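Page 47, continued from p. 46.
Same chain as before, 406 aa.
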Amino acid sequence: PVVTTHQYHRILGSCVAQTFDRGGHMIGTCVTPFGVNLVARDPDTLEILADQSITRWLPVGQKFSGGVYFHLDHEDKVLLASNTLHIDRWSLEPTASGVEWQRIDSIPIGDILDEARREDHKVIDVMPDWQGNYWFITRAGLVGTVNADGTGGKAIPLQTADATEGIDNALAVGKNGIFIVSSHAMYSFKRSAQGGIELQWREAYDRGSGPKEGTMGFGSGTTPTLVGNDYVAITDNADGQIHVNVYAQQKMAGEQLVCSQGVFPPDRGTSENSLAVVGKSLIVENNFGYSGPKNVPQSEPGIARVDILAQGCRLAWENLAIASPSAVPKVSLANGLIYLYTRDEANPDDLHAWYFTAISAETGELVYKQLTGVGWLFNNHYGSISISPEGAAYVGMMGGLVRIQD
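Result:
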């Protein structure tokens, strides 16, 4: 493998996630000490083609919001929510000298959120549903929706008689509804016939007695992961051993929970990242003990595959030798490899050496690893792995971006 790196900011600039438009551009967001930028690049050279400030924000000591999560819509426009409490659509437009970002839509949502509850709103994510309406969520547990033309806005708080619930993860949207995991429960919503927010189902999960070492919040650390149109999965935060919980997407007569499978050693496991899906199998990694980018990560090893069966779940394999402190795992269906971003147990404890690592989805065994760099700026710190249509892999890291190409 050939490794190429590109530094984004002279202090630090974590280019968290990448995706690709039909024009062959790589699009991502980069977080600096001063805010979030929307960046378009040449995927081969990593040259920056267009760079746009989205959120002016000092993230030190704060949980992220305001454009870190973004999506490409059906027209290759970037959809995100800024910290100005607007849903924005950005278009990459040609110019005489190249391309530039232009904001083509901006829908205010501050009043919609204030009607539900007045507070300092931190919008995490926004996505369209199957009918083209926008849905958005805040860290303080507000769920909102608005028509694409900015009309018909509505928001509700996630709360019970006993607790006000927060949200630390992104949305998942499928043809069967909107799926959200709060600090207490899994939810499915849809738009009602009157344009409001209709609860399809809610099911509490075991959130344990407190946050675990390596988590950002108290509760599930995983964005809901859809398995086709049948299931949606998260990990819980149970005391002792955590579990992969699989729920039916559509409303059931009894419990929504289809099965729950324990993973990783008791009191030494947690998951702060989305699960990866291979058919009816779920890939989960262990993030227990991860303590931030500048500290040498001492996270517990652990990668596992959980299979969804006709009746229940089973643990297909568990690799307790490989530690991937915080990278969202990705799977190539073309070659059957799971990609991780790891440290090497054989290295000295104080060495910041990072590896792009491939293991078999079939067996969980190591296939190969490639050193990407040494130093804390090579820590991905929850930056995800992206695979391009041409077969290159990209990892967002604290210093910018790593590209790995055969």
